[in-house]
Amino acid sequence: MRLPSLFAAWRQVLAAGYSLQALRGDLAAGLTVGIIAIPLAMALAIAVGVAPQHGLYTVLVAAPLIALCGGSRFNISGPTAAFVVILLPITQQFGLGGLLLCSMLAGLILIALGLLRAGRLIEFVPYPVTLGFTAGIGIVIAVLQIKDLLGLRLDGAPQHFLDQLALLGQALPDFRPGDALTAAVSLATLLLWPRLAPRVPGHLVALAVGVLAALLLEAAGLPVATLGERFSYSLDGVSQPGIPPFLPAFAWPWQLPGPDGQPLVLSFELIRQLLAPAFAIAMLGAIESLLCAVVADGMTGSKHDPNGELLGQGLGNLVAPLFGGITATAAIARSAANVRAGAYSPLAAIVHAGVVLLAMLLLAPLFSYLPMASLAALLLVVAWNMSEPHHVLHTLRIAPRSDVLVLLTCLALTVLFDMVLAVGVGLLLAAGLFIKRMSELTDAQPLPRQQLALLGELPDGVLAYSIRGPLFFGAAEKALSVLRRFNPGVKVVVVEMSAVPLLDMTALAALENVLRDYRQQGVGLVLSGASANLRLKLRRAGIRREPGVLAFARDLAQARAKALDWLEASP
């Protein structure tokens, strides 16, 4: 088996040639996307329940490593909103150490998927399933932001959506006007700025306006919660507000604090508990990254290596947690911005990580003034965009009822329970409905008139049927059971099978049962028009030509001749 190669994207770039103009494009795109990534990385880290610097660490380590080793020239990787629903419960139950260990396990799973060349398997995830759980994730993220948007103080940390709504309702009368006004100003800027100056990233302007609004409101006696008030770090034994202005240190995840503040105890039981969410992280990361690569290919005319991209994503998620980075995957919005800004190669993703590094080293003290309400407003817009309400409504209007059922089921399960259950149930439901539709396409009927004419006049002792459609476990028994329904005087049954593309083990077992009944009744079966592939499968299953019981015919004319010969030879 040929293994997917590392550096697949770079191999494409070097094969196509790299010029000074391409370098300028990569530098400009990296600068643009790096500026976009800084507040998003911090906001998403906060959303999953960890300090904001862990989002920046993810960009610093995972983004350049994935760009270097992966299979897409234009993907920009880092923290994404899609993971909030999965990662927040992990943080609440296992702490920072458990979250980072789970990310490493997901990285190993992604590497395994890449080595097994499973990149194309992601294409088999139905669109209603993807749309349903992304819309559900968007709803959950939006609700999670209400707390900081209004400056609410919740009693406890609810782990379920309905509990979250109940606590928000209880805390709503005590909202803080300063936070609410700051959020409103930031949100209005986010929505209006792209229409005024689309070349300047709107979220940077929104955060700047939010900082200014917060300072004015503080001066007017209306307090506004800021990042520096919520988060701090220790330097030489002294607590400092905000995020640390230095590089992350290497640490094994199990050396970091768990939910009780004590280091985790690495054990088989801990790995067992984290394996299911790690698998969910890996599958969502694979879907998100490969969808992102497809979008980038559509914008540029390039072609990514899906297995190489899975390998790169796996390495990024395996290494980043060792330096405090949380789960990373390719982000569609940032990758699209990367393409529009003129990127040519993965160097743009590496430059974008360098921009984040410089910002963290030089501007960390200023980040302390960022209002939590402004960061929440930023994530609220991200949640709206990722939920794609126009696509959901359009699908609800035009899709078949079965697809609508899958979409709504995935959405509801994602919101009310979790994404792991939603995707599992959605895939099973979609598969079941697909099997039902396919089984309805398979039938066994008396031979149509135009084909019956090819057989000519048939004696009373001969019946002719036509089977159309795949003979698989959902349809085989129903279709082949028709072959048992005939009068006692019938001696030969002709079955036309040219419209049968495949058969599985269930069909083989059902056909063996039919042949056993025919032997007991002295009835012969002639299979006409079966493809070479079907005949090979029958031979491998031990269903072979048997005088007076089973014969094969190229076409209906030959089948007629064999049927008449059997009638003459029968007593």
From TrEMBL:
Residue ranges constituting the STAS domain according to the UniProt record: 460-563
Places the protein is found: Membrane
TM ranges: 31-50, 57-76, 96-116, 128-146, 180-197, 204-225, 274-296, 343-362, 369-386, 406-435
Chief location category: membrane
SUPFAM superfamilies: SpoIIaa-like
One BP annotation, GO: transmembrane transport
Keywords of the record: Membrane, Transmembrane, Transmembrane helix
Gene3D superfamilies (alphabetical): STAS domain
Record flagged with keyword Membrane: yes
Highest taxon, organism lineage: Bacteria
Entry-linked NCBIfam families: PRK11660.1
Protein's name according to its UniProt entry: C4-dicarboxylic acid transporter DauA
